[in-house]
Give the backbone structure.
Amino acid sequence: MFQLSPLVRIAVDRGFVPASEVQSFQGLDSQNVIEAILRNPATSERQFLMAIAEHLALPFVDLSTIEIVDSLMRMISPSILFRHQAIPVELNGDCVTIAVSNPCVESLGQEVEQATGLDVELALAETNQIRTLLKDRLGIAGGTLEGMLDDDSRPADAVTEGDDENSLANESSIVRLVNELLSDAIASGASDIHLEPSQHGFGVRYRVDGLMLDQIVSREMDRFHAAIVSRLKIMAMLNIAEKRLPQDGRIRFQASREEVDVRVSTIPMIHGESVVLRLLRKGRSQWGLAQLELPTHTARQWQQIINRTNGIILVTGPTGSGKTTTLYHLLAEIRATRPDAKIITIEDPVEYSLPGVHQIQINEATGLTFARGLRSVLRHDPDVILLGEIRDQTTARHAIEAALTGHLVLASLHTNDAAGAFTRLMEMEIEPYLVASTLVAAAAQRLVRRLCPLCRKSTQVMPGEENVILPQGATIYEPGGCRECQGKGFKGRLPVLELLQTDAAIRKLCLEHASSQEISEAATKAGMRTLIESGFERVSEGKTCLAEVLRVAGDAQNRL
């Protein structure tokens, strides 16, 4: 029998951990014990830390109710605060009270005493509150940046061309700074990182759940802009000396226990090179229609559509609307229901690896385009083909030919609504009779932010907000804010879509060169739910809020 650590004993005594699970904590240090206990979403970090504080006779502080004085923050080195995830909250004479989320920070008191001459008393506070304050007050990677500025061996802005720049980009401090930037973005749930130079300095923005959010960075970060870009180029195996042309590459980055594929794009701007990093998480292990959490009637429609053995299925929407992910879920469902089917994809880029699916990466530099790839794929006897995107007439015509010769083709297309897929193909000079005979379904999709299920708040549909799906007085939900969602009220996203199945009336309209509005009206009369109606249905399910649906799909409201 191993010796229980004090933290585990407290967790067991207070009911946070069943006694039967104590063996799983064997060999873990205090930080990993806390993380393991809090990994259960039902466990309240606040309640757990309050229990620890009571046991250790330490104060527990709610940092959201305390004003942290800047002069107090400046008394202690940012590198110490970041390393120990600590916030100074009060100064009484020669004693400073410092809030931490891990009470077992053995060296914190010694380091602060050596640096400031002050005695240290500990208080406990929630991890997210500490991280938010550190980031808000000191910026991303503030501790590492301070150490770089303290390095007197060279001027911080001494970034030169060629070998000197290469050397600087490989310095441990720059490596650590870039790694911390990537790790912070991943921990924040970002899908993209934007590193943007301007006349006012170097800016960092994250795209989180579809929204662009400015990040706080020290003004001194601007002095390391060139070195940061060079480091990213080295990681992505790009030419660091080339600053006049755009470049694209990729990085495999290990963040904690998660591997992330990072797509890197650089482009020269008048104030320096701008970099956008697309973060593709590799942790997804489950695919299929069930993972989309669609309403029952929509899932049933999709099942009917993908059971076909030929024709074209299009998923449309703007960039970042989840088209590729939905197509992957459809492919996985086909794979599960038709294990004998040979499935080949042609993508740019290949975002996820799908088991049992043969995937091709487009490389236009070598001549491997969507059109050329599709011509070659047809000689490999596929049953199902996925085209990452139909970009031009040639690709569209090859897709039509594949569908006519007995293949099921799935692809994405950029249109605003489902009906627009029909007219878009005809604008590519595809004959209307070919569109009518091969396009079996088109789905327009958007992503709405999902309400955090732990803190959502109930409300009612108010007068003036009611519609055909949400009657006045119906119970709906709005965002709250808690530890699990980092105070945002939302956690993750889910799709809303309008799914248009081709019937005789739609085919007739295609042959008559009808407009997308006429096609949409006919589909709505036949029972199609529009984007906004699909969004309202998500609201009625309690999965998102009314304001979010109107933000994402409000332009379709006049179609109700």
The two ends are 66 Å apart (CA to CA).
